[in-house]
Amino acid sequence: MRRTPLFASSLALVLAASTADALVTEPNGLVVPLDSANGEVQLYTMFQNLNDPVDWKADAHTTPNAFSPLCGFTARFVLNEAGSHFGLAWYNETGQKPQPADLHVLVPPNSPVGTMFNGTSIKNDPGYAGGLVGFALVGGETHYTNPAYNNLCSACNPAAPWVTAMIYASKTTPNAYYIAFEDGSTSASGWNNDGDFNDDVYFLTGITCSGGGQPCETGNPGVCAAGVTQCTSNGVVCQQLTQPAGESCNGIDDDCNGPVDEGDICPAGYVCDKGTCVQSCKGGEFDCLPDQACNSSGYCVDAACKDVSCEAGKVCVGGTCKGPCDDVTCPFPQVCRVGACVDPCAGVTCESGQVCDGGVCVTRCDCLPCAGGKACETMSGLCVDVACIGVTCDAGTHCAGGTCVDDCMGAVCPTGQTCMAGQCVENPSSSDASSSSSGIFGTGGEGGAAGGGGMGGMAGSGGSGGPGGPDLSGSEGSCGCRVAGDEETTGAAWAALAMMGLAAMRRRRAR
Known about the structure:
Blueprint: E1 5-7, E2 24-25, E3 31-32, H1 43-49, E4 68-80, E5 87-92, E6 104-107, E7 133-138, E8 143-144, E9 152-153, E10 160-161, E11 165-169, E12 176-181, E13 190-192, E14 200-208, E15 215-217, E16 226-232, E17 235-240, E18 270-273, E19 276-279, E20 292-294, E21 299-302, E22 315-317, E23 320-322, E24 335-337, E25 340-342, E26 354-357, E27 360-363, E28 374-377, E29 382-385, E30 397-400, E31 403-406, E32 417-420, E33 423-426, H2 475-478, E34 480-481, H3 491-498
Parallel strand pairs: 21-34
Antiparallel strand pairs: 1-13, 2-3, 4-14, 5-6, 5-7, 7-8, 9-10, 11-12, 12-14, 15-16, 16-17, 18-19, 20-21, 22-23, 24-25, 26-27, 28-29, 30-31, 32-33
Keywords: Signal
InterPro entries: MYXO-CTERM
Organism: Polyangium fumosum
């Protein structure tokens, strides 16, 4: 870096016009980062050489400037275009400017480019306080990722601290950031830097912003609803995990267009019922149950629902349209999805170092800090109430506030079911148990009845039980039984139903 002193009295003499698309402005009006055009390796060349498609201007930010350290932390010195080689340190982010003793060196000053930090990871460092951390350039004037701790330009209008670090999120490596520093001196009225931010650049992996890596809802329909929070300069955003695919008969909106199991997805003479292709009742080869009728789509439905057409997101129960999860409170830790109580983590397989939380694979809590009031339950890898750490509960119970309580406490199962041992199962004494029912989100248009049970969020026709209950689809002639609903169920309705209770699933059973 070749230093070009820029003083507060010369605000108009900056190159803002040529860098109008940059996002960071110094208190003296200088828009950064700049191309110093002095023969040095610029940031855009560095990113090209590293095969990381980062935009050196548009992706330059001052946030996030504090991070949650994860497992597998690394720090590598990747670029130096200054006469001196300054080092990198971390500090606990407390809201107060760190003192020299609070700075923990990762890469010592005068280290050559390519130096890798190979000491104890931040999470295992005795000095780590357990919260967020920031980073600082050390060896000369200390420059912080949090600009609030840098020298104040009191001569600027308005007065503000100098920005001495640019934060770039990697686009090829998850949970990784580039921190690009200017290492020149700053004062109440001066900025002895040229604004190219190529003096000392470090690449850090194994860090995320506060709130990153958590399950979230994208607001998109079907399988596109589930996401994980990702860090941006403006906070966290929900990044979609699953891309649309061709529709199949599985009770899920695979193509993320709103309707579930729509189109000709079964062989001729069959209809898609609760995620399974079953024979249509329209062929006349068998009759529906006595209290059922065959609707125009080929499903055996409650007779009172034969000619009922419900609005999107509703199902027919005894001739009346209602939400499929209305009046349903599922046993812990299940959630109601399209009329059935299910565990959203059932059938989900996560990669090493991850655990399922609300149907989404997230980093284990021993590698990702828990939110306030929560602590890491190392056996499950999930964040639980602090009072539940070390509490072991029997099957069918879970820890709440430090006490084991029945999973069925407060549960109100779908029609025709009762809660036993933490599961909504068929109630033999209920008259509804023998009636046709279906909890599939309707796309057939006419008739149908909502009932409980079924696996994976799909209720069983013929009054099938909940998870683990008998599958009676197609009983009495293998007739498909179905709910009433719009021919074109809206995507918003599916997303709302399919993701219902996601937040509640953040709490898990303490083992």
